[in-house]
Amino acid sequence: MLLRKFVSQRLAAYYSQPANTVVGATTLATSTKSSIAFSSLLGELHWKYIYGNLYRKQQGQWLTPVELFKPYYSQVFANYILQQLKTPLSSDCQYEAFEIVELGGGRGTNARVILDTIKNHQPDTYHNHLLRYTIIDVSSSLQDLQRHTILQDDGSDAGSHADKIHFRQVDLTDVAEGKQYFFESTSESDNHERVRSFVIALEMLDNLAHDKVRRQGKQLDSNVLLEEARVVQDDSLMQQEVFVPLEDPLLQTIMDVAPFYGVPISKQATWVPSVACGLLMQLAKEKQLIDVIAADFDWLPPQDASPEGTTIHFPVHADGDPIVTSMDGVDRSSYLEASEDLLCDILFPTNFEKLSRFAKRVFQSENSSESDTIVHVHKQADFLCRYGPEQIEQTSGWLTGFCPLLHDFSNCSVMTVANKPGLAVAGSRGPIKVKPR
Question: Which partner for 174 in 27, 106, 179, 367 could form a disulfide, CB atoms 3.0-4.6 Å apart?
Fold first, then answer.
């Protein structure tokens, strides 16, 4: 089995569990209000005490920035979208509507907050120009929770957004491999050339399957297959790595486009974000007028060793090794430990410098001029300061000014891609007009 297939299957099994056991929350699913009195924070120690209590009380294995800092964290991304809509990407770029596509929707909180923000602050934009908000997720249990979060009317001004929200259960590995289209029309009248698309991926890159390549002498010629090996002692089966000549079409294309994803001379092997790269290539093929916003970990700490008594065939150490954590909160030494009996989260750090270079290359290959694609990478705190000054103020302690929204998740970055086709669409009514906030 090709390595990314194995990782993809193990992650799909992990996220097929009851949603509440995986992604935690600090308040009820239908509430977009924070349960934390940020203005009363006395400093970092006070925040760590509050965070510790929240983490112990919630049921899920993880608390994401979306849940921990709701609604403020998601509001910043809504601000970014509204700001991008306010100024056309180019003088010739015209479109009639826009859509938002979120990859891996978590509990649905991010979608709910973004829809609330656009509707409350820019009702004309929401009602007349927002075509749809689509959540793409492989987990049916998470999509059930997302429906409950977004479609349940909690009495707020925003309502349920039932006429805007759409759900697709899709394996993004299939999309990356070209087996399935990324965009799907909801009616025959949809014209993708007249719709501007915003693709959002928050803490999604770390859970997209990777491949591993290995240097053998001076030649980079291998990727990883997995095979079952029988353990003599107890006659059980386990997975082990087997390196074979590189023949996989997706991985070969990535290497052709971006040789910098090869193994450095100083390393024995390295991980390649093959599904993330495949998605970017598919997006570039399917759509011209598109923005991508991805926030994720740019670094992860070394994980703890597996528990004593664990029998495992250790894989080749590689640059960008993931953290593997089982449902009991214990770190495992290798992704090979993940199985049907031991459900594990597998998190990869993202090298944003390489991914941004790759994004620019693949989008430029579909356009005639270099200026058509603008790619930026910000540390997450810098991005939040730039597009969410109001949210920073609302999450800062009044006495000390300490802001956990900025200081937590310091090992995260945000990549934005704005693809700007140079030709206007014939017959278009012109760019969307959005009021300044």
Answer: 179
Query: CA 16, CA 343: separation in Å to the nearest integer?
Result: 10
Q: Name, in order, each residue with C-beta under 8 angstroms of 235's C-beta and a sequence gap of 6 or more.
A: none
Residues 6+ apart with CB under 8 A from 298: 349, 350, 351, 352, 411, 412, 413
136 DSSP β-pair partners: 103, 168
Question: What DSSP letter does each residue of 76-96 carry, written as one string?
Answer: HHHHHHHHHHHS-SSTT---S
> Using N-to-C axis directions, what is the helix angle for 249-257 and 352-365, rounded to 10°?
90
- Long-range pairs of 50-54 with CB within 8 A, sequence gap ≥ 24: 51/404, 51/408, 54/26
Structural domains of the chain in order of their starting residue, each with its CATH number: 3-419 (3.40.50.150)
CA distance 83 to 78: 9
Q: Which two tokens stand for residue 41?
A: 């924070």
What's the pTM value of the predicted model, to 2 decimals? 0.91
The DSSP element (H or E) to which 414 belongs, if any, is strand 412-419
Tell me the pLDDT band of 187, cut-offs 50, 70 and 90. Answer: very low
> Two tokens at 397?
């302690």
> For 267-315, how does the pLDDT look when each residue is reduced to its tens digit (9 = 90+)?
899 999 999 999 999 999 999 889 999 999 999 998 766 555 555 556 8
**Strand 412-419 and strand 97-103: pairing?**
unpaired
- 8-state DSSP, 206: G
Q: How far is Cα 61 from Cα 63, in angstroms, rounded to an integer?
A: 7
Taking 50 as the threshold, does the pLDDT of residue 431 lie above it? no
- The tokens describing 137, both together, are 């997720």
Say how far apart CA 359 and CA 279 lie, in whole Å. Answer: 10
Alpha-carbon distance values, 145 to 150, 216, 368 (Å): 9, 47, 43
Residue 244 β-bridge partners: 223
**C-alpha closest to that of 290 among 53, 100, 5:** 100
